[in-house]
Amino acid sequence: MRNLRFIVVLATAVVLFAAGSVLAGEDLIIPLKFIPTTSPGKVAPTLREGISNKPIAIAIEDARQVKTKDLVGQGTGAGDDTFRIRFAGFLPSYLKTTIQDRFGTWGIQVDDKSSLVLAIKVTRFHVAEKHAFYGSIFTAEVQLPWTLADRAGHVFASGTALGTGKTKGRWRNPINCEEVLADALQQAAATAAGDATLQEAWLAASPQAAPVAVAAAAPASARSKVAVGSAIVPSRDTPRAATPRTSAANGAKTPSQLLAEVTKLRRQQLGTPVLVEFVSKQTLASGFSANDLVAWKKAGVPEPVMQAALQRAP
Hints:
By secondary structure, this protein is α/β, with parallel strands linked by helices. It is built from 8 helices and 10 strands. Helix content is 34%, strand content 23%. The strands form 2 sheets. Strands 1, 2, 3, 4, 5, 6, 7 and 8 form an 8-stranded mixed β-sheet that branches. The longest helix has 24 residues, at 2-25.
């Protein structure tokens, strides 16, 4: 009888362990809400006088080196079993909404139309769960390289903000994942906003709007000739001056010249949204050749920037 009971208990344990192993390998999908464990009032930057009166725009770029952009972490189950933690949404949208909300709470004016732009690249947004017999430990890391620039491409300051979070919780609990990621993101955002170099450049900057392409005026030979007291009207036989094509004289660039400018801005860590807006305001003197397309691709220019450049070709 005792042997029978032992066999039943052992079989039950094996079944439960097998079920747990299968579950551990399944992806954990989290909605990613901003629910920090720390009080928002306790995590805030110290702002210099005048910062709150100078609006800023925020641009976000997901620059993480991950296999899929929805991947935000990894957890462990029984033994060495692991599972992926994924976000059911678009990370840049979540980051922009959350950072704008935090900045507003701290007294910073955020205006998408501002010529002063804080371009933020997220290079690390990761949560790790380590399972143990007494529960799970959740840790998170957020890394945000930032660049302060205007829409004309002038860079005023750059740096990197880091944030971490840690808490205890239940195995495969989405809320615990959201809590530590929110703590890490809030800390990184506060670190960026409170950076002394950023605030100094923020106050001193005289941001310029993106350049607007202006059509060149027609040369004097092509204008209507006007004499004092009478108008000189050209006859039908008088050849008219040909309309000049867009050229370097009116600020138009070749694809290779524009690539050089884009490369220069990318070295300053400007985000894709800023580069797209910059390129969209340019004028190209000629279309893209096959060699131009290859050169842009080899330079690693983001696809949205290339698309914007192609639309500027005559």
